[in-house]
Amino acid sequence: MELINLEFAVLLIKLSISVLPLVASSYLLLASEETKRDLRSFICRALFNVSNGIPMNNFRRILNWVGGLGVAFGILAGWLLVFKPFLA
Fold it and tell me: What is the pLDDT of residues 14-54, one digit of tens each?
């Protein structure tokens, strides 16, 4: 008796491809202002060796774009990978 079916493993991989971008982008969109400032200072220190190299307004706009694209990618991947094969 097999412990895990191959089709079930493929389904788990497809679900993770569609759910992980949704979770990450939701975190970026719904994080508090303090968390966004901490993330900005971490990224600026890693890239520029300065804690505030990117203005907060520009960083907030970038986070909104990346979060929106992540939500769109997660929904599209969920539709194409998970739900579409069941409808065919």
Answer: 999 999 999 999 999 999 999 999 999 999 999 999 988 99
Q: Distance of CA 87 to CAs 62, 77, 79, 80, 84, Å?
A: 36, 15, 10, 11, 5
Find out whether 79 and 17 touch, Cβ atoms under 8 Å.
no
Type and span of the H or E element at 71:
helix 56-77
Write out the DSSP string of 14-62.
HHHHHHHHHHHHHHHHH--HHHHHHHHHHHHHHHHSSTT-S-HHHHHHH
The two structure tokens encoding residue 52:
């505030």
User: Which amino acid is present at 47?
Assistant: L
